[in-house]
Amino acid sequence: MKQILDFNISNSLLNISFEGDYLLFSNDNAKGKVFALIKNNLQGIVLSAQALGKWDSTLLSFIFEIEKRARELSIPVRYNAFPDGLINLINLAFSVDRKPSPVDTGKAGLLESIGSWGVSVYHGIKSGLSFMGKTFNAVFRSMFGRVVMRSLDFAAVLEECGYKALPIVSLISFMVGLILAFVGAVQLKTFGAQIYVASLVTIGMTRIMGAIMTGIIMAGRTGASYAAVIGTMQVNEEIDALKTMGINQFDFLVLPRIIALSIAMPILTMWADFMGMLGGGFVGVVMLDIPLQKYWEMSVAAITLNNFFVGIFHGLIFGIVIAVCGCYYGISCGRNADAVGTSTTKAVVSAIVWMIVMTGFITLACEVLDI
Amino acid sequence: MMKNDVKIKAVGLKIGYGDFVLLKDADFVINKHDIFIIMGGSGCGKSSMLRVLTGLVKPLEGKIFVDDVDFLAADTITRNQIMQTSGILYQSGALFSSMTLAENIALPLQLYRNYSPEEIREIAALKLALVGLKGFEDYYPSEISGGMKKRAGLARALALDPDVVYFDEPSAGLDPVSSKLLDDLILDINHNLGTTIVIVTHELSSIFAVGNNSIFLDGETKSILARGNPKELLKNPPHEKVFQFLTRGGEKNA
Prior knowledge:
Strand order of the largest sheet of chain B: 6-7-8-3-9-10
Shape of chain B: globular
Helix content of chain A: over 70%
Number of strands of chain A: 4
Oligomer: heterodimer
Distance between the termini of chain A: 86 Å
Order of helices and strands of chain B: EEEHEEHEHHHEHEHEEHH
Largest sheet of chain B: 6 strands, mixed
Structural class of chain A: alpha/beta
Radius of gyration of chain B: 18 Å
Largest sheet of chain A: 4 strands, mixed
Strand content of chain A: 5-15%
Distance between the termini of chain B: 32 Å
Strand content of chain B: 15-25%
Shape of chain A: elongated
Largest interface: A-B, 14 and 23 residues
Number of domains of chain A: 2
């Protein structure tokens, strides 16, 4: 049936009649004209639906808006021949017994924004330091065996962040070694010094690249997992259950993860160094025609204990950073699914940022100490 | 009432978060062996009250005495000792998903009792049998239904033979039969073990089936509007809101 919306004012009465089917009614122009007619000088509004066919929520919301505007101006509304269901729904929409609290939608000024940011930074630093303090306390107590940590949990966490991470660490490190070798070869070839590709890859991987690539992989893989697991425990009230059982959450959840990643990361870093060198070797031997024996000798000659241990130290620090960030954002997670997602994202991003910051500090320290 | 019949006494509790106050001047007494219901409409502060009673959240003001000991002012060791005499069943069961049901129940026993692993295993099996989960020792929480999770959570809450068991919305998300089974279990625990039970709920059927003492919290006035046996409150409601709540908005034969 064709949709006809007719409206006019006679004797200070606004007459609106609906004819035909009102499905997916979206005539903004007509709606605007009707709303414009609802003014203080009206004596009443009469809505007629003698020839109304099918209807849906779009008609309902239009009538609701008319009724709302009329009520605001204390104009009586009369319904003629409207379906009972439609009138009942309109009444239901106005029968809410509780008014919502006023929502502050005002835009904060510059000073207020800076102040709020300052307060949030202060609280962030405070809670971060508090977390670190409690973590150190747990680590310290663990040295004297005064912690509640299940060896089974520790083994499971170590397995998860240890050998299960080997395939992805291997693949990425191999590819990074390969890329380093390619990029280096392009430049070195111009001097006929492509043999030094072996030294370039070995030094690059052992000193920093192996640790950084492993750190980034583990931040995305394990750090995110820590935040998600602990955050979900928060949502499921498991952390509350721990607290009310008198179990220290730092002993039970944070400590095994920090110890496990502190053990796994240096080992994974060593493995990443090896795989990177293998990737470089693949390019050197297969594409640059460097004899395998020669490549191996150059690689071994480029390995220095300083570089090797600086890389391993990076791995250890990155392990602690990733575990702390994952656990911190997991424990401080809110109690809904969205909060778990946010915590996971924050855990990964902050772990990567802190890894870069720590790399800066370590590099500076190495420079000063001439390592 | 003799003084030593009092298990928990709340004095002048003010509960809220920051500047937002949920409840103020709340005084009430939970006697030993009571099945005490904390009821009220949604958002009135029932669950927050439970979090305060179990020490998860500090009240803005007031004191809580458990067996005449000031629970909130007590040192960590005393608080832990008090908490060891209470068990909590959370709304979701809050079982540790990485552990089997037996391991969940064994955890508090391993921490606070000097039992051998065999004894712990036997006690865990017994507690599971008491809640109707005999043979489910090696199941993980993800392998059982919602009602079973709650019963397993109750078995864990009972692990240390507590004096008080707190329940947070025990019937939430359960079908009527499972809900009735849980109510029966609560009555059994109360009758047979003499355990004091504190339940936060707004399920009328459970309130009348198990409760023998209660308080009614009102979110609007931020106060306790009524106290006493729920059945008595239904007969003589002291306030229109209490009547509306206990009769599902004035329904006959509620």
